[in-house]
Design a protein that fits this description.
This protein is α/β, with parallel strands linked by helices. The chain folds into 5 domains: 152 residues, 3-Layer(aba) Sandwich (Rossmann fold), CATH 3.40.50.10380; 154 residues, Rossmann fold, CATH 3.40.50; 102 residues, Rossmann fold; 130 residues, Rossmann fold, CATH 3.40.50; 145 residues, Isocitrate/Isopropylmalate dehydrogenase-like (Rossmann fold). Strand 9, helix 13 and strand 10 form a beta-alpha-beta unit. Helix 24 packs parallel to helix 25.
Length: 751
């Protein structure tokens, strides 16, 4: 658990002079009088009348379909108890932030000043037309059960009490995976549940639904085991009364396979843990301190699998893995309820995701070098961006399958839409991926640095996702050992250039290419042992279609050997490096960002043509701007004159490509600037930006990526005589897969 002071927590909540954690922002333009007339009077009357005629149109013309009410009366705030509705507001705002951050769901937090069940139900029903769903939060048991049951029955929108069902869903996913690891069957295990509140009862109900036999589940409250001789139990506890002679937690733990702790700190002793069955599963979920600390449990039972509610231990049962994505899926099909089948779908989606390779962004967020399915990783982590793409579609599908969806959707298209919600570059990423996959996964991609774990993981994804056929260069034993360590189901083709039987054949071919360039056969044999030479030769020999390299090599170490073998593309004299920059969902191409230091005007024209050609390949209609500090001759200087000359030559050589210059950067990208000041320009709102020098382009894209938070895709080499593409040192697995897809696109374009 992250350490912080009281002062830090308070300062966070009043940070930047804006108290609280949420705000309301407009989603439509509000810049002109016409905008205001559309937003309010008189324009707003049109959707009002439409909704009056057809209430379902509220989902089309208002925020209802993406708006959830988080409702509390503050009677069970976190682990703090009944502190009242106003004190619960920081928690409810926090809930809203999590909804927005993880699933792009908007929230109004509603704090109800009432302890009366009927009054709370009345309030929620009265405000329900505003919302697409209701999330009940921090309402104590047993009142919470009655409130949820009534509202679910009386409202036509999803009602979900997260304190109950969220914990149940996450812990159930962990349970399924833990049982898989130890090889036990769910219908044979004995489960002890310590706690009989909202979470405990919901966890128990879901465990039974998943296959735990009711007679094998023992529940305890603060007075001990719920047995047949107990009196004064409410109807919710009555469901879990068992005919047993066990009375205490110590009694119940003898021979137990699973412990669910939803109670208080330190109630589970080491002696109790010792008494459990082989390979015990212990979910100590009390917050902030668990029923037993993992180190104490493992000291006496090293064979145990542990989960807690804390972030400083592995396997955190964190409700944020559930509610944002559950509501996302429910809202997007306009579900009338969140039913049991949808909860089970969430469980299965989370359990399945845990088996997948963990992205670098997640490893970095948790300071880990690796995370893989096993005893220390049975539940996805809260910062895993893939949860949205797995859980929300599972919820949506279950809603449609069970008849509670009012809107039918295509799940595959829905996954794409969800990815687009995750931010900048998602649409471009999917476009590149889909174009690469259209090859049928047949293109052979050589990865020069085949022993690198990131490369191996990326290559596995390239194969699994049908992007291409990976070939890894390196020591076969080393690569296979790393594949095993990474727990990947992956059997790639591996070639070791230092021992390859084809080295002599390759050396002879290389010598033939370079014999009049100062190369001897002996030298050819020597260099052919290097992956950065062997790989581009594989394309030359017809045994590969593309090369990806550069994770550990310097840029020139990749490009120079490839150029010696393949030269530049026909009709071109230069190679250039491009970056796709995604800014507010809009794509720009920057060139040349990586290769040509100080290109002349003629060189810039060639670079611009290459960049425009690539833009067309990713379905961007190019509008080329030659950038300078000057606008259309405003300053007579060699630097600006070079760009003006390039713009003139571009129009002469490529009249079919809209282009203009020289112009300043803001003139190029802000259409109103150029329309008002330079209406004669052939380019308004440029999307292919040609920089005068390498330093200008390189500095610009890096500043935009780091300070402007733009998504950068690249570098992408254009003008090469063969599909050879270079990585950046430090690239993550997602970046490598993306460049591999670009390499496949490049190979396809040469067929």
């Amino acid at each position: 658990m992250s350490k912080f002071t009281r002062e830090e927590a308070l300062e966070y909540h009043r940070l930047n002079g804006k108290p609280g954690k949420v705000a309301i922002v407009p989603t439509k333009p509000m810049d002109t009088a016409r905008d205001l007339s559309l937003a309010y009077s008189p324009g707003v009357a049109v959707p009002v009348l439409e909704i009056a005629d057809n209430p379902e149109d509220a989902y089309e013309y208002t925020s209802k379909g993406n708006l959830v009410a988080v409702v509390s009366n503050g009677t069970a705030i976190l682990g703090l108890g009944n502190l009242g509705p106003l004190a619960s507001k920081p928690v409810m705002e926090g809930k809203g932030v999590l909804f927005k951050k993880f699933a792009d769901v908007d929230v109004f937090d509603i704090e109800v000043d009432s302890l009366d069940v009927e009054e709370i139900i009345k309030v929620v029903k009265a405000i329900a037309p505003t919302f697409g769903g209701i999330n009940l939060e921090d309402i104590k048991a047993p009142e919470c059960f009655e409130i949820e049951t009534r509202l679910k029955a009386e409202l036509p929108i999803p009602v979900f009490h997260d304190d109950q069902h969220g914990t149940a869903i996450i812990s159930s996913a962990g349970l399924i995976n833990a049982l898989e690891i130890i090889g036990k069957k769910i219908d044979e295990i004995k489960v002890v549940v310590n706690g009989a509140g909202a979470s405990a009862i919901s966890c128990s109900k879901l465990a039974v639904r998943l296959g735990v036999k009711p007679e094998n589940l023992t529940m305890l409250d603060s007075r001990g085991v719920l047995h047949t001789e107990r009196e004064g139990l409410n109807k919710y506890k009555q469901e879990f009364v068992r005919d047993t002679d066990k009375r205490t937690l110590a009694d119940a733990m003898v021979g137990a396979d699973v412990f669910y702790g939803l109670s208080v700190a330190d109630v589970l002793t080491q002696d109790m843990v010792k008494a459990m069955a082989k390979d015990p599963i212990i979910f100590a979920m009390a917050n902030p301190d668990p029923e037993i600390k993992p180190e104490l449990a493992k000291a006496v039972r090293p064979d145990c699998i542990m989960a807690t509610g804390r972030s400083d231990y592995p396997n955190q049962v964190n409700n944020v893995l559930g509610f944002p994505f559950i509501f996302r899926g429910a809202l997007d099909v306009r579900a009338t309820a969140i039913n049991e089948e949808m909860k089970v779908a969430a469980v299965k989606a989370l359990a399945a995701l845990t088996h997948e390779d963990v992205p670098d962004s997640v490893l970095r967020a948790y300071g880990k070098e690796s995370m893989k399915f096993g005893r220390e990783y049975i539940i996805p982590t809260a910062m895993d961006p893939r949860i949205l793409l797995w859980e929300a579609p599972a919820i949506a599908q279950a809603a449609m399958d069970t008849g509670v969806a009012r809107k039918m959707i295509d799940i595959e298209e829905y996954r794409k839409e969800l990815a687009f919600r995750q931010g900048k570059g998602a649409r471009m990423h999917h476009l590149i991926m889909n174009k690469a996959k259209s090859s049928g996964g047949t293109k052979r991609i050589v990865f020069e640095e085949g022993e690198e774990p990131k490369i191996i993981r990326a290559a596995a994804r390239v194969k699994d996702e049908g992007i291409g056929r990976p070939i890894l260069l390196g020591n076969k034993d080393v690569i296979r050992k790393k594949i095993e360590e990474l727990a990947l189901d992956f059997d790639p083709e591996i070639i070791d250039p230092s021992t390859c039987e084809k080295c002599e054949e390759y050396a002879q071919a290389y010598f033939k290419l370079r014999q009049r360039k100062g190369r001897t056969l002996s030298m050819a044999r020597k260099v052919m042992r290097f992956s950065n030479v062997y790989a581009p030769m594989m394309i030359h020999m017809g045994e590969a279609d593309a090369v990806v390299s550069g994770l550990t090599y310097d840029y020139p170490q990749v490009i120079r050997p490839a150029l010696k073998i393949h030269h530049t593309a026909e009709g071109t004299d230069h190679v250039a490096g491009l970056y796709i920059m995604i800014v507010d969902a809009k794509a720009y191409i920057f060139a040349d960002t990586t290769v040509n230091i100080d290109p002349c005007a003629e060189d810039l024209v060639e670079i611009a043509a290459l960049a425009a050609g690539f833009a067309k390949s990713i379905e961007i209609d190019p509008r080329v701007a030659f950038l300078s500090f000057s606008d259309f001759g405003s300053t007579d200087h060699p630097f600006s004159n070079k760009m003006a000359k390039a713009a003139k030559l571009m129009k002469e050589k490529h009249p079919d490509i809209p282009s203009d210059g020289e112009m300043q950067a803001d003139t190029a990208v802000v259409s109103s600037f150029i329309e008002n000041r330079f209406p004669f320009s052939a380019v308004k709102d440029a999307n292919v930006l040609i920089f005068p020098t390498l330093d200008a382009a390189n500095i610009s894209y890096k500043l935009l990526a780091r300070l402007g938070k733009a998504k950068a895709i690249g570098p992408i080499l254009v003008g090469m005589g063969a599909p050879v593409h270079v990585l950046q040192q430090g690239d993550e697995v997602n970046d490598i897969v993306e460049i591999a897809a670009v390499a496949v696109m490049d190979a396809m374009s040469r067929d």
